[in-house]
Design goal:
heterodimer; A: about 200 residues; mainly alpha; 9 helices; about 80% helix; B: about 230 residues; alpha/beta; three-stranded antiparallel β-sheet; 9 strands; globular
């Protein structure tokens, strides 16, 4: 999950984050659990496409999201075709794609802080059994935030290999990536404390 | 007005290594420069002001607060700017990261939004409010880090080599903000001797000891002579 938020004034942008999470959550459940035929799956596709249009993302915005996951979808589809008949393979693969598109629709129309506030509010009742809702929300925020940083480390390591005229191998790539990531985790922990989060 | 920072026979050990030994000093100046070679103890000194490192011996007081006993309280009045801005960014977008600094401080939501807007304007980051924070340039990230500190209206700002990774333009912007009236007291750890020369007092560390402190021009001249 990475931050994809695109500012806008669509009904989905204006909808409170909690209600939106609930609504799209129900849609995801319906897509995942309902025993679909190709016809009912067609309706689910229409609903998701309508969601993108209502959110002001257009067909181009929808296509951008599909392009980001096309390798996963092709891999899943081919794998399914080996073991099950084509209608079942199509239904399963389309289900996965629709669920990913639903998740992206939340990210596209909701600021991370609003989403985290909603998650924190939703989890607050669990504080009675010792669940720290604020910590879970912070953990999610950090996860979203550090993904591009770690991707940046990976790019730097590949560039360093190229600059020295060698191809990155599993050991020469993974070890420095782990070292960079752990050092970054140390610095991030220190910054969290410095910004007032209790250790 | 600058508060009082007091170290009384303070020592810190990391394993077998003496990071800081027997440091005694009282500082009331508004601009305090800290210089020394790598590993000399200057960053340890700075981290003790924000309770990131606690003394193994002696006593520290920051504006009357004992960081060992009241770490949360000292962090509310003392903001910290690190050399690497990447590690200071917690929230995904610029405005959200600045707003994060005000969480848990009892500031109403409407006031948070207004203060974030105003602060981003001061730092020239308004156009980037909804941009992913990690896609900014290094200079913009450091501006964001400082913005996220100053929005809390700290009494003291501790900056550990804040200009180390910056180009000339962003270096100047950061320095202008650090030396502005919005920073009542600044502790600046730096290898940039021109920057240290702008301070009211300079502390020189060597091998974990406070070797000397006083007039910036004199301290810097002796330091340059020793290592130039």
């Amino acid at each position: 999950m990475i931050s994809l938020y695109r500012p806008g004034t669509s009904p989905l942008h204006r909808m409170p984050a909690g209600r939106k999470l609930l609504l799209i959550g129900v849609l995801v459940l319906a897509i995942s659990i309902y025993p679909h035929t190709l016809w009912t799956l067609g309706i689910a596709v229409a609903v998701v496409v309508a969601g993108y249009l209502i959110a002001g993302q257009g067909i181009s915005g929808l296509w951008r999201q599909v392009r980001m996951v096309w390798m996963l979808i092709v891999f899943t589809g081919v794998f399914q075709l080996i073991f099950v008949p084509w209608p079942a393979a199509t239904i399963t693969t389309t289900r996965i794609l629709l669920v990913i598109l639903c998740a992206a629709l939340i990210s596209l129309t909701t600021q991370t802080s609003a989403m985290l506030d909603a998650i924190e509010r939703g989890l607050t009742p669990l504080s009675r059994i010792g669940v720290r809702a604020d910590r879970i929300a912070l953990l999610l925020a950090l996860t979203i935030t550090v993904i591009p940083v770690i991707l940046g480390f990976a790019r730097d390591i590949i560039t360093a290999h190229r600059a020295r005229g060698v191809r990155p191998g599993p050991r020469t790539f993974v070890v420095p990536l782990l070292v960079h990531t752990m050092r970054f985790a140390d610095e991030l922990g220190e910054a969290l404390v410095a910004r007032g989060l209790r250790s | 007005m600058a508060g009082t920072i007091a170290f009384d026979r303070v020592g810190v050990r990391f394993g077998e290594h003496n990071a800081l030994s027997d440091v005694t000093i009282t500082l009331t100046q508004a601009r305090i420069g800290v210089i020394g070679l790598n590993g000399s103890g200057k960053s340890t000194f700075a981290r003790m002001l924000n309770a990131l490192v606690l003394p193994g011996a002696g006593e520290v007081r920051v504006h009357g607060i004992d960081p060992s006993a009241e770490a949360a309280r000292v962090r509310r009045i003392a903001g910290f700017v690190f050399a690497n801005p990447d590690a200071q960014i917690i929230m995904p977008t610029v405005a959200e990261d600045v707003a994060f600094s005000l969480r848990g401080r009892g500031v109403p939501q409407a006031e948070i939004a207004a203060r974030v807007t105003a602060e981003l304007e001061v730092f020239g980051l308004s156009a980037l409010a909804d941009a992913p924070a990690h896609e900014l340039s290094g200079g913009q990230k450091q501006l964001l880090a400082l913005c996220a500190v100053l929005i809390t209206r700290p009494e003291l700002v501790i900056a550990d080599e804040p200009t180390a990774l910056l180009d000339a333009r962003n270096r100047r912007l950061i320095i202008d903000h650090l030396f502005s009236e919005r920073v009542p007291q600044l502790v600046l750890v730096t290898h940039d001797l021109d920057l240290a020369a702008r301070c009211d007092v300079v502390l020189r560390f060597e091998d974990g000891r406070l070797l000397e402190h006083g007039d910036p021009a004199e301290i810097i001249a002796r330091y340059s002579e020793a290592y130039a």
